[in-house]
Write a structure and sequence with these properties.
Blueprint: E1 2-4, E2 10-13, E3 21-24, E4 37-41, E5 53-59, E6 62-69, H1 77-81, H2 89-93, H3 101-116, H4 122-150, H5 156-175, E7 184-185, E8 188-189, H6 197-220, H7 223-229, H8 237-243, H9 248-251, H10 259-262, H11 283-310, E9 329-337, E10 340-348, E11 356-360, H12 362-368, H13 370-373, H14 379-387, H15 393-397
Antiparallel strand pairs: 1-2, 2-3, 4-5, 5-6, 7-8, 9-10, 10-11
Helix pairs in contact: 3-4, 4-5, 4-11, 5-6, 6-11
């Protein structure tokens, strides 16, 4: 591409590498010159998990600068919280991360229950813990299937969806929903479990655990996949602490922190929660963390089912007034969502709607670190790095 510069005395040819050459007006060869090229990835692109835009500055085939630009899916959920009562805001909270709906509901009801000083029935606490771990497995299975697809392997996603369907069946039976479960309520859960459901849930967990080796062997034994991910997109511990990165991505870089173990909520304080970590911090380590976390969550689900079998019959929720008002004050609740730390800052002025409900979503912080991760890497590795960040764009934009 040629264009005249402002002095009208030279022509500049913008190319890549040695193809970029500045020529004087008399046509004699001049010195080499290069110019960076700005490339937009998105906002609609098959390499992104939603409508994300990446503004990349390229020096040849290498990325010299990266800016994640968010907001294309913004729905103003935090403002909508202020116009809905404490029962209705649950339906908004479970939609920003559509792969972790049950876990996202939990933070809201935990914050409201804390403000009310409400004690949830023991049975509801254990069922919540069980469903949260099943939801975690569903989330991770999606990324275990979609990530290899992004680096060229199509087969794993069929195995991942086979396992997802086994768990989706029991989640749909208990809640009536496949993605947006709306099963949490302030004070407990919507209703009692169907007859025989715990037996079917246990069988689903057993079946998924037995078949997970199909996914692991297929992917981890693939030399091409390992070559595309080992040593690529290394995220350091310092970068994690600076940007507030959390979840499996942080633990893959050696950050040994998990709210379920370190600041227990629900029934996690009575469980032995294994925290899966790696030290390499590359794309492969992040994938391995996700894979091992599936086994850990299946074990936790079995432990919850064992505990539920021991509990005597009892209520699954608390009886609430027709108009639920939360006392004036504020509180902060946070949960270990499948993608990382979710925080809920609730401010009430004694009305039936929140005065303010600030949502801290995991993906927003996790994706900001791309500005430091991508510079210096090749364009060919960009999709592999992007996919390994395991984000949902709705969780970024809210």
């Amino acid at each position: 591409m040629c264009d005249e510069v402002s002095t009208m005395t030279t022509e500049r040819i913008v190319g890549i590498g040695a193809g970029a050459r500045e020529l004087p007006s008399d046509g004699t060869p001049g010195g080499l010159a290069t110019e960076d090229m700005v490339l937009n990835i998105g906002p609609q692109h098959p390499s992104t998990h939603g409508v994300l835009r990446l503004k990349l500055t390229l020096d040849g085939e290498r990325i010299s600068g990266a800016e994640p630009i968010v907001g294309y899916m913004h729905r103003g959920a935090e403002k909508l919280f202020e116009a809905r009562d404490f029962r209705q805001i649950i339906v908004l909270a479970n939609r920003h991360d559509w792969l972790s709906a049950f876990s996202s509901e939990l933070g809201v009801v935990l914050a409201v229950e804390r403000m009310l000083g409400m004690e949830v029935p023991e049975r509801a606490t254990w069922v919540r813990t069980l469903l949260a771990e099943l939801n975690r497995v569903l989330n991770h299975l999606m990324f275990l299937g979609s990530y290899p697809l992004e680096v060229g392997a199509i087969t794993p996603i069929f195995y991942a969806f086979r396992e997802r369907e086994a768990l989706q069946a029991v989640m749909e039976e208990v809640s009536g929903g496949r993605m947006h479960y709306m099963f949490n309520r302030v004070g407990g859960l919507k209703e009692e479990l169907p007859a025989g459901w715990t037996g079917r849930a246990r069988q689903a967990v057993t079946d998924v655990r037995a078949r997970m080796s199909d996914i692991g062997d297929l992917i981890m034994g693939n030399e091409i996949f390992r070559a595309r991910t080992r040593g690529v997109g290394v995220l350091t511990r310092d970068q994690i602490l600076q940007y507030g990165v959390s979840g499996p991505i942080a633990r893959a870089s050696g950050v040994d922190f998990d709210l379920r173990r370190d600041e227990p909520y629900l029934a996690y304080g009575e469980l032995d929660v294994p925290v899966v970590t790696r030290t390499e911090g590359d794309c492969l380590a992040r994938f391995e963390c996700l894979l091992d976390q599936v086994y850990a969550s299946l074990d936790l689900a079995d432990a919850c089912l064992d505990r539920l079998a021991e509990l005597p019959p009892g209520p699954i929720n608390q009886r609430l007034p027709k108009v639920l008002k939360v006392p004036e004050g504020h509180t902060y609740a946070w949960t270990e969502n499948p993608l990382g730390l979710n925080g809920y800052y609730l401010v009430s002025r004694g009305e039936k709607t929140p005065w303010r409900l600030k949502l801290r979503s995991a993906s927003y912080n996790n994706i900001q670190v791309l500005a430091e991760m991508l510079p210096g890497t090749l364009v060919a590795d960009m999709v592999a790095i992007l996919g390994s960040m395991f984000f949902v764009v709705g969780d970024i934009d809210k």
